[in-house]
What does this fold into?
Amino acid sequence: MFKNFSELKDSLTSSPPRTLVVCSAHDLHTLEAVFEVQASLPMKYVLVGDKTKIIEISKALGKTLDENEIVNAVDDIECANKSIELIREGKGSVLMKGLIETGTLLKVVLNRETGIRGTGTMSHLAVLEVPKYKKLIAVTDGGMLPHPSLEQKADIIRNAVSFYQGMGIKKPKIAALTASETPSEKMPETMDAKELQEMCEKGDLGNCIVEGPLSFDIAVCPDSACIKKHKSTITGEVDIFQVPTVATGNILCKSLLYWANAKMAGCVLGAKVPIVLVSRGATAEEKFLSIMLCLKAGE
It folds into this structure.
């Protein structure tokens, strides 16, 4: 597994160029990130949005665009429809959300007739570089499904496993996180975690190791597992943290960002192409890393 984002970036330098379709691209921070990635990695792009604003922002950033790199769209709905149409026509292999409401874009993505939804559950994967940990880690799902069902949790794991295997990790280690490592019917998420481990043991979740329920301390600290006398084959070695709710994932990621000096990239999995879906207020660095991550997911 990659130790940090620099190693992930290095792995992309010799990859064939992929085309990024940016929905509502008339946004300074979005274009900054797109141009920065394009300058350092093999990537093409199509910018969908207000053509006049896109050209003005690009010129201010010292970039001159070709006409075929811009698709004019007058509002968010048209931006979303034209972006998805480009993906469906095979003219893009990664989709990026620009200055558009997440709900507006996802409504078009999920349209059963004209969208790009996959056969399973779409989920968000956050990949983080945490200075105190020896490798990149993933948290899922902290951005899509508020209270996923057991089957949705299984799909979330399958999405993450597929992504990690694409990065060369043949058998990723997954902690099904809860507040306690003891299954209890009073805490339904612990029963789900136990069931997920059993599903993994039956081979229903792909080639991976799932342990659950696991508390966070046992997942990351072998000493804690020893003190609690909890036998674990993945403590201190976890690749992916599967969380019980979107709130758990959101809080965990933001805690690592603000208190542990972590860096984060996000990717939506489960559609026909990876989707760069970050907050409109995200920094240019987070958008850069998220584009890079989705390029890797699209390999």
Observations:
- Residues 150-166 form the longest helix (17 residues).
- The CA atoms of residues 34 and 288 lie 7 Å apart.
- The two ends are 16 Å apart (CA to CA).
- DSSP finds eleven helices and eleven strands in the chain.
